[in-house]
């Protein structure tokens, strides 16, 4: 029996901007799927999912992947018309208007975290997500 797929808490949807953020994250995940990148969600949204909602807003969506995947991801995002740039602090940022999805280089930001992972549903995608212990370590 596999572990259940977690969902985004209802309280997150109270923010009118959140639906646009998740739609943008879906567009970015579609590019990941196309170029063969399997990211791990971490950061504030992952914390919201694990806590079942928390008293803070989610302003962006954070993922981790190998930094070696950044060039392919940048090309794929560019082909999809999504602005992105690689930052010197080992992060790829994808932006649309006031929305941001970030990919941290896992070997820099999470080198000692190798799972286990949970799964979370983001639109039509099921992605790996850092478990509670990993978020605590992060």
> Unreliable segments (pLDDT under 50, ≥5 consecutive)?
none
Shape label? globular
Largest sheet: 8 strands, mixed
- Tell me the helix content: 25-40%
**Helix-strand makeup class:** alpha/beta
CA distance, first residue to last residue? 29 Å
Count of alpha and pi helical runs: 5
SSE order, one letter for each helix or strand:
EHEHEHEEEHEEH
Total strands: the figure is 8
Strand content: 25-35%
* Overall mean confidence score, pLDDT: 90
Biggest sheet, spatial arrangement of strands: 1-7-8-2-3-6-5-4
What does this structure look like?
The structure is a single chain. It is built from 5 helices and 8 strands, in the order βαβαβαβββαββα. It has 138 residues and is of the alpha/beta class. The model has no long low-confidence stretch (mean pLDDT 90). The protein has an 8-stranded mixed β-sheet with strand order 1-7-8-2-3-6-5-4. Helix content is 36%, strand content 29%. Helix 1 crosses helix 3. The termini are far apart.
Itemize the secondary structure elements and their pairings.
Blueprint: E1 5-6, H1 16-35, E2 40-42, H2 43-51, E3 61-65, H3 70-79, E4 83-87, E5 91-96, E6 99-105, H4 106-109, E7 117-122, E8 125-130, H5 132-137
Parallel strand pairs: 1-7, 2-8, 3-6
Antiparallel strand pairs: 2-3, 4-5, 5-6, 7-8
